[in-house]
Structure formats: structure tokens, C-alpha cells
Amino acid sequence: MVLVPIALNEAISDVLPVVEKIARVACSTTARLVEKDFADYKETTSSNTVRNAAHNMVSRLTASLAHVSTREHLRVRISQNLLTKFEEAFRTFSAHALPPRGVILQACEAVCADNLELGSRLVENIAAERAVHEVDAMLSGFYNDMQSPPPRGSSERKDGQHGGSSSTVAPAMMRVYASFGQRDDETKRQKRSNPMQSPSNIAASPFHRKEHKLRHNQGLKYRVHRLLDDWLSICLLEAKSSTIVTEEMYRQFLHRFKDEGWVENAQSAQTFFFIATELCVESSCRSIDRKVGAHDEGKENSAGSKYTAVDALARLMVFLVKFLDCDDRVGLLATFLQSVVHQLLQDHDSKSKQQGSGVAYNQKPHLRLFVNVLHDLDAFNTAQLNSPSIDLLVPLAEAFHAVRPERAPAFAFAWMELVSHRLFMPKLLLGKPSRRGSSTFELLLLDLLAFLRPYLINQEKQHPIGVLYMGTLRLLLVLLHDFPEFLSQHHFSLCNTIPLTCVQMRNIILSAFPRMISLPDPLTPHLRVENLPDMRRPPHIACDMKEPLLRRGLLKPLKSYLGTRWPISFPKKLCEQIRGKLQPSSASSSSPSAALEDSKSTRIVGGVKRRAASTAVGEGRKERSVGVNSDGYDMALINSLVLCTGMHHIARMALEADDKSGGVIGPGDSSTSHALVRDNASMDVYEALMANLDAEGRHYVLNAIANQLRFPNNHTQYFSRVMLSLFANAKGVFVKEQVTRVLLERLIVHKPHPWGILVTAIELIRNPKYEFAQQPFTTCAPEIVELLDSLTRSCMMRPNAAVTEARATLSAGNNDDHRNDAVKVHNAQVVPGRNNTRQL
After folding, report:
1. What is the gyration radius of the CA atoms in the chain, in angstroms?
2. What single-letter DSSP state applies at residue 324?
3. Which three-class secondary structure state does DSSP give residue 46?
4. CA–CA distances in Å: residue 93 to residues 96, 288, 476, 567
5. What whole-number distance in Å separates Cα of residue 66 and Cα of residue 61?
6. What's the Cα-to-Cα distance from 191 to each of 66, 122, 186, 188, 624, rounded to whole Å?
7. Which residues contact 618 (CB under 8 A, 6 or more apart)?
8. Which of 627, 630, 637 minimizes the C-alpha distance to 577?
9. Bigger pLDDT: 441 or 85?
10. Are 322 and 328 contacting, i.e. CB atoms less than 8 angstroms apart?
């Protein structure tokens, strides 16, 4: 490999200035010693003897000094030169893409380690040769004063490897000078007997490489451990007394950290923090696993002492981010956190495989590390960091996404504590720009919901999942109280991820409304919701609701049909596409927003079996019961279809409406407005879905409509009208039964209840034109009678005579067991992952 000798030669050239200084020091020292030792023997000792003694001493001294002073610098230069040469050669002679920089750097370090000894020997030889010539120049006058060489055949040797000897020179002194030469001769013999130490033979045996890599890793760990010990000492001293630690101590540590090359590139920094995290986590785990003695149980600082190393590491990260001379501090923090994430995942995966052997992953050290980073970052002045606070939180959010519960289940509880931390979630949602913070936290919340989704669908009630579910509800309630705009703007993507069985969780999200809006009481007599000013304003939706349609190639055909109502067969074909009977179109979106949405929501829905609620009574006898094994409906696609279809008609109505009406239609409007809602392409699509889909498909469509019944806005007004129109114009009782079910199942759970659901349900029950009380399913079972009677009373109405009569008849004709089975609204309980409704 011709690149290795070139890189080695350039590295040696870089250290030659240091070699020259070393040679001058060694020559000066040798010259003074030789003149002192041989001053009294000028007349009895030949110049060759003195010259050989000086050569032996200066060669050995120079080589030793060069080895100590230049070895580390030579290693760094060889590695850097190899990296540059390999990258240049790969770009020039290879048609393939450049391998990852970390892979190239690993190869460079391995080759450097194999050739470092050779380079050191070469530097030592160069230094010795230069020193020999320089010491001769320094001692030239002293040589001239010495006795001339004796004639050939005399008892004194004219030349020898170990110098001449004289009967008048002290034997002990000559043995000292001879020993320098003996060491040099031994080194030369070892070099000649080891042909592997040459650039042409860098490909050592696999065993040699593995052994050397092990030595190299141990060397790296030693260097990191030494730096961590020094940093820990500074932290402990400051903890005892802040006056002991001076700025000079921090400055010296920072200078040493940079001199050792740990911040020369991203790979070096990641290597340091990976090893440092591994060492600190191992130290904390040993302290946690160690049994605490009886005399330590009462100590307050016993818990904190277990995490001393982890606390110091977190402080070191933030210290370097603050004080390193770097323009991209956010990128530097991201580099450090990538190492922590890598080590966490490696530790998690390795210990998860050993669970049977009693080894379990402990999430506490990594949790403590991340929490301390949050605290230390928050303590900094944002102005000093020259970047807004949200920029420093984004790398943390990316790290949390990398260790999400789907990827590291054993870290799930610690992960949830981190994403809901008071120094993370509020600052991320309140920071600037707000849209970036909201989209970042949306991704984390979707990570949590995606992890829970399979368990909630399958109604698995293990204790850990139940605790995590309740924690998720509390997190959503905090968001509802403190950040309602976030939930209202991201309701579409969140509802795509939440199973239909989690009614209360969905209600919490759909109950959110902006602070500037005041909700009128839906039970107010003669309330005309269509006259509310807020009903003319569209809601703000942050995500791309069109992406699922665009991904399946349905967006353009849908827009074309909504604009022309042609071809007539489009709604039926659309139903077939939704059921998955047609192959997905190859059309896809390459926009960043589409790729982001696909990674956040549709990928979650696509690979999981869907579970709808039970089908309506009556129709359930004819059609199969809907359970876990569904026909593969794409919920994200249905939600997107329903919303985009309605938004198209709302926009068209706004253009056609005059200034007086404002282009809006309310649930209690006249028959003229009712006709306007029915006679359009959007209603054609909705009615086709009701007519051509099975019970499960209709249930998904009706839930997609109900997801838009939220706070006062034109979406709530329109979709409330759509829901009531589907009920009024249904050809059979089955659709009416399902509309009732979808509305009621969202009202019988604990509060909060979406305002739009309440308004629509009250209108359905109050308005006599819908003949709700005369529907056969309202009196089919005592539970239903009791439920509807309670709901009627809550609507401030006198119970309908038909309902009251049916209730009396059922009570008289059935035994006490039936009466005891009555369902009360106020007694409804929430069970994680279960629907809290009875079959209608």
C-alpha cells in the first residue's frame, strides 16, 4: 500500500523540528560530560576512543528523548495523514460512495497502530544521526587535543563498536560508555529480526490485529478514565467549597482536553463521550447494585453519591458546549448526545438479551444523565450561548426520539419522565419558533402513542402498560390545561394513532380549544350555534392532512370529482380503494412534509391490526362481528378523505355565499340550508361510503366525522350538519344506529366531552324532525332505555313519552336482574384500552 509510506514520511517530516531541538539538548549534555570525563586522559587516550564514547552516549540519549517527546504527536499526524490520503484516493479511484467517516477513521487508527513503532524507530535513527554529526562538531577541538591514533597492530583498538580502551582510563567509566552502544546494537538486531515492522507488511495476522485493537481500546479507556478522574476531582472540590476551585483549573483542564485531540473532529468527540458514558454508567450501576449497609441507610447523600460520576459527566458536556471555541454549539451538543444514545442502546440491547441470566437493564443512570443535562442547560444564560433556548432543546428531542419506547422498551418510564419534564416540554412548546417546537414535541407524543397502540388494541392489561397508559392520560390533561393550542392544532395526527377503543383519550384531545375562544353552554335553551361568530372561522391544523390521499394517488381524482361530480362511478371505486381491494397507486409525495407525516403517523397505522367497536344490534346478526382481525382499513386514509372532502365543500360554500349569510350553515337551519348540504359532491361521497362500506368501514367513517366535532369553528358546524344529515336521510335503521352509537360512546365516559359532540347529540335528541325517540333501537334493551333516559334528562327535556312507556313496560315485564344491569351515565368507568359503551 503506497499510501502508508507517504503518510508515514509526511508525519516524520512534521516532527523533525522537535527532533532538532532534542538533538541539540542531547549533544550539549554529551559534550560537557565527555570533556569532563576525559579531561585528565588527553595524553593517554586516542581521539577514536573519545569519539566512539561520545557517539554511543549521544545516540542513546537522543533516541530516548525522541521516543518520549514525539511518539504521541507522531501517532496523531500519521492517523490524520492516512485519513486524508484514504479519502482522496477513494474519491479519485473509486466509483462507489465514500464509506462513513467513522469506518475510515477506524481503519486509519488500525494501520497507524501497526506502523507507529516503525515510525518511532525511524525518528530515533534520524535524531541519532543528526546528534552524532552535531556532537562531533562540538567536540572537534577536544578531539584535536587528544593523542593521535596508535600505529596498526598496537594493543589499543583503533575503532570498535564499544570504544577503545586504555590502561590509564578507569575501566568502570569505559563500561558505562560501552553500555550505551550495547543497547543500540540490541535494538538494531531486534529490528533486523522483525520483518513485520515495515510499510510493505502492514497486513498483519488477524490475531495480531485483534490483539492490537484490544490494546488500542484499552489505551483509549485509560486516557478517558484519566481525564474523567481529573474532572471529577474538580467537581468534588467545588462541591466542598467553591472558593477552592479557580478559573485557572478549568482553563487548564480545557486546554488539556483540546491538546489530547478529543475535539479535533466529531468522531473523536463521540469516541470520548461513548467511553465516558460507559464508564460512568458502569460505576453508577455498581453503586446501585451494591448492598447498602445498615449504617448508611439513614444518610441523605447516599442516593446522590451513587450518581457522582454521571452528574460530573453531564456537567462536563454542558461545560464544553459553553466554553469550547466553536461556532456550532448546537451541533456540538448533538454530537455529545449521539454518543450517549449509542451507549444507551448498546447497553439496553446487550442486557435485554441476558434477562434470563439475571442481568437487567437499569434505566436510572441514563435518566439521571439526561435530567442533569436539562438542569445544567437551563442554568446557562441563553444570550451567552448566542442561540435561542429551543435550539438547545432540539438535540435533546432528537436524542429522546432515538431512544423512544418502541426502540428501547426498558427505558420507557424514564423516557416518559424526560419528555414531560418541566424543563423540557414547556420550554419546547413556548420557545421560538413555536411551530418548530410544536412539531418536535408532536413527534415525541406520537412515539408514545405508537408504543401503546398494540397493547390498547389487544386490551392487554399488564400492570406496566396500565401505569404507562394512566401516565399518558395525565400528560394529555396537562397539555389540555396548559397548552390547548398544541392539542387543537395537532388533533388530526394524534387521532390517527389512537385506537378507536380509547374514547376518553380521544375526547381529551378533541376537547382542546384556543384560549381566545369562549364556549357557550350547549344546554342553553334556543341556542342558535350557527349565529356564533366563531362558527365562521376555520380551525388551524398544523399537520398535512392531504398526505395519505396523495400517497395512495387519490388526491387529484378526488379534487376533480368534487369540482365536476364526474365520473359518477368515482365514489364506488373510492370505497373499493379504501377497503384495500385495489393496489395502491405508485404516486407518492417527495415533499419533506409528506415524508415527515409518513414517518410519524401513517407508518404507525399501517402495520397494526385495527379494532373497531362492536357492530350495531340487528345488523350484527347479519354481518360478521368486527374485532381484532379487520379487513385492513387504512384509518389515516379514511380520516384524510373525510376531512379533505369537507374542507373542499366549506371553501366552495365560502366563495358562493353572500356577505350576509357568511357562507355557513348551522345544525338547526331551515330546509333550504339542509338541501344545500345534501345536494353536493361532498355529500355524494359521504353517502356512498355509508352505502357501500360494511359495518366496520362505516364505523371508521363516522368516527372520522366525529373527530371534527370540536370547539366552535366552521369545521364543527359543517360536520355536525353532515352527521345529522346522514342520520336523517339513512335508508335503513343500521346507519342511524351507528350514528347514535358514535355520538353516545363519546358522552358516557368521564369528562371532558368535546363541545361539538354535545351540540350535535343535543340537536339530534331535541329536534323532533329526526324522530330519535321513535327509532326501534332506542327501546331494544333496558340498558339502552336507561341510558337514553338519563341523556334526555341531562338535555333539560322532559323524557319522551315513548321512552318512558318503554321503560315502564320493560321494568314490569322483566325480573330484578335486568333492572340491576341498567347502565348509569355517572357510573361509567374508564378501563385502559377498552370501549366503555354497551352494544346498541
Report:
1. 41
2. S
3. strand
4. 9, 54, 56, 58
5. 9
6. 17, 11, 9, 5, 85
7. 733, 734, 737, 777, 780
8. 637
9. 441
10. no
Q: Is pTM beyond 0.70 here?
A: no
Each residue's pLDDT tens digit, 5-58: 888 888 888 888 888 888 888 888 888 888 888 887 777 778 888 888 888 888
**From the centroid of its chain, how far is CA 229?**
29
Closest CA to 595 of 646, 533, 543, 558: 543
Please calculate the CA angle 482-487-493 and round it to the nearest 5 degrees: 155
CA dist 754 and 715 (Å) reads 13
HEC profile of 126-169: HHHHHHHHHHHHHCHHHHHHCECCCCCCCCCCCCCCCCCCCCCC
Instruction: Give the model confidence (pLDDT) of 201-240 as tens digits.
Output: 433 444 445 555 666 677 788 889 888 988 988 888 888 7
End-to-end CA distance of the chain: 80
Backbone angles phi, psi at 184, to 5 degrees: -65, -40
| pLDDT tens profile 491-522 | 999 999 999 999 999 999 999 999 999 899 98
Set of cell numbers at residue 228: 474523567
Q: Which of 391, 369, 260 is nearest to 307 (CA)?
A: 369
In sequence order, what are the residues at sequence separation of 6 or more whose Cβ sits closer than 8 angstroms to the Cβ of residue 246? Answer: none
Distance, in Å, from the CA atom of 707 to the CA atom of 701, rounded to the nearest integer, reads 10
Which whole number is the average pLDDT over 596-613?
28
Enumerate the H helices of 657-781 as residue ranges: 671-678, 681-692, 695-706, 714-728, 733-744, 755-766
Report d(CA 687, CA 570) in Å as an integer: 13
The answer to whether 261 touches 268, Cβ cutoff 8 Å, is yes
Q: Supply 334's cell numbers.
A: 448533538
Q: Is 523 helix (H, G, I), strand (E, B) or coil?
A: coil
Distance, CA of 444 to CA of 415 (rounded, Å): 10
Task: Tell me, letter by letter, the H, E, C secondary structure of 565-608.
Answer: CCCCCHHHHHHHHHCCCCCCCCCCCCCHHHHHHHHHHHHHHHCC
Closest CA to 49 of 189, 224, 170, 166: 166
Torsion of CA 537, 543, 547, 549, to 10 degrees: -40
Q: Residue 302 corresponds to which amino acid?
A: S
- DSSP label of 502: -
* pLDDT, tens only, 399-411: 999 999 999 999 9
The helix or strand, by DSSP H or E, that contains position 746, with its residue range, turns out to be: none
Residue 14: how many other CB atoms lie within 10 Å: 17
User: For residue 751, what is its C-alpha cell?
Assistant: 369528562
Residue with cell string 390521499: 549
